[in-house]
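Service request form, structural biology core

Requester: graduate student, group of Dr. S.
Request type: structure prediction, single chain
Budget code: on file
Notes: please return the result as C-alpha cells.

Sequence provided:
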Amino acid sequence: MNDIEHQHQSLPNTDIYQYGEPLQAQQLTPMTELVLTHIDDNYPKLQLYVAGVVYSLIATIICFFIGFIAPLSITAKLLLIVFILIVAVLIIRLTYLKALTVCYGVFKDELIMRQGLFWMSTTALPYTRLQHVNLSQGPLERQYQLVTLKCFSAGSGEAEINLPGLNADTAEHLRQHLLYQAAENQSSEHKVITASLDS
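Core staff response, request fulfilled:
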C-alpha cells in the first residue's frame, strides 16, 4: 500500500455531520406557516422604561452643555436642543416598538425566534444541535418577573438564540421541554449512527 492510499484511508469521514443530523427539507417549517407567540407584555414596558431613563439622561446632559457651555447663539441653541429632544423621543419609541416584535415558536423539530423592526431576523435552532439551555434574570427583569432564555448549540461558544421577555414560569417549562426534545433527538440520532456502523 503506497503513502497516498494510506493517507486516503486515514482521513475522517467528512460525510457525517458532526453537530447533529441535518433536517430534511420536508421537516422544516415553511415561513408562511409559522405560528409564533409573542413574549410577555411587561417586556416592552421594561424596555420603554430603561430606554426612557437612559436616553433622557443623555439628552439632558447634551442640552445642558449646549445651553450653558457651547458658544452658540440663542436661536442655534434652541434649535439644537429641540432636535436632540426629538431624536431622544424617537429612539425611545423605536426601542419600544422593536421590543413588541420579539416572538418565538416551539415546533416539532426546531425552536424559532423572530425579531426586528425594519430588518426582520428569524433564527431557527434544530433540536439536534441544541446543547444546553440557560435562564438569566437581571435586577430589572426580576421586578417584572421576566427571564431571558439562552440556547447554546453544538460548536458555538455564544448563545445562538437569546430570547428575552419570558414569564418566569413559561421560561422554566420551555427550558425543560427544549432539553427533553434535545435529548430525544440526539438519542435517536445516536441509534441511527450506531445502526449504520453495525451494518
